[in-house]
Write a structure and sequence with these properties.
binds nicotinamide-adenine-dinucleotide, five-stranded parallel β-sheet, globular, 5 strands
Length: 198
């Protein structure tokens, strides 16, 4: 695939990278020269994905339960140990939680969707952003949904989780646009701390 984006030797962590959009994002990163690090809870599919993507470049994997802060922190440290840094983060993993009217959704299902789609991206940012700050470089892409902007009927849990993720993205983007964040972490400013969040 022709590419104009040079990500040579950048280290990209993609959550939910074992299948779907995360898998496609990993392939795209590899085509652009990045090292792709797939995080997923599905160990079997993770191994298959690694074998499939390996011809495109360097692929490593971690079995991670993204709603568990201990698991996420351990994975972030493992990547830092293996590759020296994390340059790019794609917070992609998400679940729908099924479709039903708000008053028909089980509270446990509602909580689970918020946990996976909102709390988990927070936990991943919490573990990864300090490493980006220390290294003076970082790019974060959070995969939301139009449901988070519009509020889809029969998906209040999913819509609320994605609206929350959009809010998290905006807050984090503003925090990281502040050069003081970078200076405090690394004791020196990167040339241009342009932190893209979507
Ligand atoms: N597919 C769509 O049409 C669509 C549309 C809008 C937004 N999105 C968003 O795009 C993202 C990816 O969607 P997809 O359809 O490719 O998903 P998918 O179901 O195909 O893949 C999600 C991956 O995330 C992993 N995962 C889920 N929960 C996890 C957890 N707690 N810990 C670790 N791994 C976990 C799964 O094992 C799976 O491999 C989601 O955030 C989704 O909300 C998808």
């Amino acid at each position: 695939m022709a590419t104009q984006i040079d990500l040579k030797d950048r280290v990209a962590v993609i959550t939910g990278g074992a299948r779907g959009i995360g898998y496609a994002a990993a392939a795209r990163m590899l085509h652009s020269g990045a090292v792709a690090v797939l995080w997923d809870m599905d160990a079997a599919r993770l191994a298959e994905a690694k074998a499939e993507l390996a011809p495109l470049g360097t692929v490593t994997t971690d079995v991670v339960e993204l709603t568990d802060e201990v698991s996420v922190a351990a994975a972030a440290n493992a990547v830092a140990g293996r590759h020296g840094r994390i340059d790019i983060l794609v917070n992609n993993a998400g679940i729908t939680g099924g479709n039903a009217k708000t008053w028909e959704l089980e509270p446990a299902v509602w909580r689970k969707v918020i946990d996976v789609n909102l709390i988990a991206p927070f936990l991943v940012c919490h573990a990864v952003v300090p490493k980006m700050l220390t290294n003076g470089y970082g790019r974060i892409i959070n995969i939301a949904s139009v449901a988070g902007k519009e509020g889809n009927p029969n998906a209040s849990h999913y819509s609320a989780s994605k609206a929350g993720l959009i809010g998290l993205t905006k807050s984090l983007g503003k925090e990281l646009r502040n050069p003081t964040s970078w200076r405090t972490a690394s004791r020196q400013l990167p040339p241009k701390p342009t932190f893209f969040t979507r």
